[in-house]
Design brief:
eight-stranded mixed beta sheet, alpha/beta, single chain, Rossmann fold, globular, about 220 residues
């Protein structure tokens, strides 16, 4: 059953929707650069595919509704990163999630925050997937510190973002792939393109979360 959670971070509380299938193999935290992650139809579609693979999800709004009205906040990567780290610490304190292998799914500027947080947490984060994200907004030194396998999904028609993703990938030293979704623009609104995103993300997470769960 979906559970609405309120997570204390710095001086605020952020809201998220937590779904844990029976016997989950891991948990994916969705990070978005605006206060839309929990309500985003695209994120929810991807989450439903993950649930079919027995992967739990937390769709989290890293900004409060008031903060989201200030557009510059959506590009405040240090703030988004600190919020995501706070959410991760909270998950490690909850009985139902403390032992689960963790991964991040980042969209838009949330992808930069996911990679920055993964750089700080090292092996604690097992995989990162970016959907039409802006990993180039992460610091190059932090991109080089990311250790977990990272999948960057970009539409073939989203030419500027594709260039920026390839630029960011050149800074990364972890196992990584830039996967180009044919015929897709930035929001993956074209028929079948979001299905391709969900399938590739689920395959990536399943592979790396299962390998993490198998380790003693």
């Amino acid at each position: 059953m979906p559970q609405l959670v309120h997570i204390p971070v710095d001086t605020h509380a952020v809201e998220g929707l937590l779904v844990l299938p029976t016997a989950p193999i891991g948990l994916v935290v969705f990070a978005h650069g605006s206060g839309s992650s929990r309500h985003s139809p695209r994120n929810n579609q991807v989450a439903r595919v993950l649930h079919e693979r027995q992967i739990g999800t937390l769709l989290i709004d890293l900004l409060t509704p008031e903060e989201d009205q200030e557009r510059h906040r959506r590009f405040d990567i240090p703030l988004l990163t600190q919020r995501l780290l706070g959410v991760t610490r909270w998950l490690r304190q909850q009985p139902a999630t403390r032992a689960l292998p963790l991964a991040y799914f980042g969209a838009s500027t949330g992808a930069a925050a996911a990679l920055m947080a993964a750089a700080d947490l090292g092996d604690e984060i097992r995989a990162v997937v970016s959907r039409g994200g802006r990993p180039d907004l992460a610091e190059p030194l932090d991109l080089a510190r990311v250790r977990c396998p990272t999948l960057l999904l970009v539409g073939s028609l989203d030419e500027e973002v594709l260039m920026l993703n390839r630029q960011a990938a050149s800074e990364m030293q972890c196992p990584h792939t830039v996967s180009v979704i044919a015929g897709a623009t930035h929001l993956f609104e074209e028929p079948g393109t979001l299905d391709a995103v969900a399938t590739q993300a689920a395959d990536w997470f399943e592979q790396h979360l299962l390998s993490a769960a198998a380790k003693p």
